[in-house]
Amino acid sequence: MCKKLITDRGIIWDYNIELVKAFIETFGRAPKTKEIVNGVKLGQFWNKAKSDNKHKRLTADRKATVDYILNQML
């Protein structure tokens, strides 16, 4: 289920993270840096999410989401 891309950063983040999940489930790997999916720079978003996660810049629920996806990839 795709959420609307409202300018609120939270909605965009949730939408993108769902796309990342779907991408990994479909292709069995994370999006590469330059990959664009449905007009979203998914690779760039995913790299930033991982980086923010590593540097503790994400809220607890977002951190849990990124950790969950990383664990699914292993």
3D structure, described in words:
With 74 residues, the chain is mostly helical. It has three helices and no strands. It has helices at residues 9-27, 42-54, 60-73. Helix 1 (9-27) packs across helix 2 (42-54). It starts with 8 loop residues before the first helix and ends with a helix.
Structural class, from secondary structure content? mainly alpha
Q: What amount of the residues lies in strands?
A: under 5%
Task: Sketch the topology as an H/E string, one letter per element.
Answer: HHH
The N- and C-terminal alpha carbons lie at a distance of 25 Å
Radius of gyration: 12 Å
Q: Overall pLDDT, averaged?
A: 85
Number of helices: 3
Q: Can you give the helix content as a percent range?
A: 55-70%
From the spread of the alpha carbons, the general shape counts as: globular
Number of strands: 0
Largest sheet: none
Instruction: Catalogue the unreliable spans.
Output: none
Provide the descriptors you would attach to this structure in a database record.
single chain; 74 residues; mainly alpha; 3 helices; 62% helix; 0% strand; globular
Secondary structure elements and their pairing?
Elements: H1 9-27, H2 42-54, H3 60-73
Helix pairs in contact: 1-2
Structure described in brief:
The protein has 74 residues and is mainly alpha-helical. It contains three helices and no strands.
